[in-house]
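Private note to self, pasted from the team thread so I don't lose it. Backbone tokens:
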């Protein structure tokens, strides 16, 4: 009997990106005697159900079993937890997560399974490479590698992961406390918190360099202001995550020192950035905004990158 894998896709108002991802999954191939059985679980976090038509039109064209679910509670962790619930109800063996602005290499899932078989790890994490929407990307973006995510050695054991390209053994979720933190619905970072908690409970995380995924980067993100906001959010969510794992005063003090070490020297250098090469100037701003984000989190000022611009549920304002 073949293993059953749920590929979970959380989507919010990206119908074109979702369709591109679904079509790429149709190209998956396997070099094993018995290919895995796959079910695709699409969780739409848009109350207007912008993904439903995409799924309905694509479903007759694929050999995969596809399920569509509307999650009315706004926020990425609610949608991810809904996907887990739907997957476990199907008694799947493994759960994968992908984002709706990505597309996969044909060997993606095979590489994930190979690494899991070789390492016996509970969680496999893989690389995500940027694909720019415009052809003439500014050179400072290319040379600065600001959109390149950190990568590791194939088979390297890690203490963290992200949900943008990950395969998880279903047994990880037998622990009911291992879910995405719904109180962080607007800040982001719930995946990093989840995987750090999983690692602390003894679940091994291993990197698969061959499990490749690509992420579309729209022109609207190729700006200095977008990057600075992202740097601030990364510092902010890093601190929120660390405080959730260790709320002690000593940890808060350590994080405050780390934030100030980043913030103070870079703040002194900021007035000189107009006279520096763009790459160097942006690296100074990266350090500054990450430090600023850390300190904002410590005084309870989270950067809510994912806060919706409209009220999505009747009792939304009363939710934690």
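Design output:
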């Amino acid at each position: 009997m073949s293993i059953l894998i749920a590929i979970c896709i959380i989507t919010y108002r990206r119908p074109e990106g979702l369709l591109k991802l679904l079509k790429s999954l149709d190209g998956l191939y396997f070099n094993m005697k018995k290919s895995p059985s796959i079910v695709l679980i699409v969780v739409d976090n848009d109350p207007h159900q912008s993904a439903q038509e995409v799924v309905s039109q694509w479903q007759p064209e694929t050999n995969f079993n596809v399920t569509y679910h509307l999650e009315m509670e706004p926020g990425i962790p609610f949608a991810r937890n809904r996907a887990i619930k739907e997957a476990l109800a199907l008694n799947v063996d493994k759960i994968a997560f992908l984002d709706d602005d990505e597309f996969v290499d044909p060997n993606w899932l095979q590489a994930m399974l190979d690494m899991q078989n070789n390492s016996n790890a509970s969680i496999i994490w893989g690389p995500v490479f940027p694909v720019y929407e415009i052809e003439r990307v500014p050179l400072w973006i290319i040379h600065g590698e600001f959109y390149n995510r950190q990568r590791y050695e194939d088979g390297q054991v890690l203490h963290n992961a992200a949900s943008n390209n990950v395969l998880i053994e279903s047994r990880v979720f037998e622990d009911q406390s291992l879910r995405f933190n719904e109180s962080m619905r607007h800040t982001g970072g719930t995946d990093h918190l989840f995987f750090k908690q999983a690692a602390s409970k003894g679940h091994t995380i291993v990197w698969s360099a061959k499990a490749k995924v690509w992420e579309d980067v729209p022109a609207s993100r190729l700006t200095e202001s977008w990057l600075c906001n992202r740097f601030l959010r990364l510092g902010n969510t890093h601190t929120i995550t660390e405080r959730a794992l260790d709320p002690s005063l000593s940890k808060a003090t350590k994080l405050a020192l780390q934030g100030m070490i980043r913030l103070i020297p870079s703040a002194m250098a900021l007035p000189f950035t107009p006279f520096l090469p763009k790459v160097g100037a942006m690296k100074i701003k990266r350090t500054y905004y990450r430090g600023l984000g850390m300190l904002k989190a410590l005084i309870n000022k989270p950067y809510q990158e994912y806060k919706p611009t409209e009220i999505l549920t009747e009792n939304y304002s009363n939710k934690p």
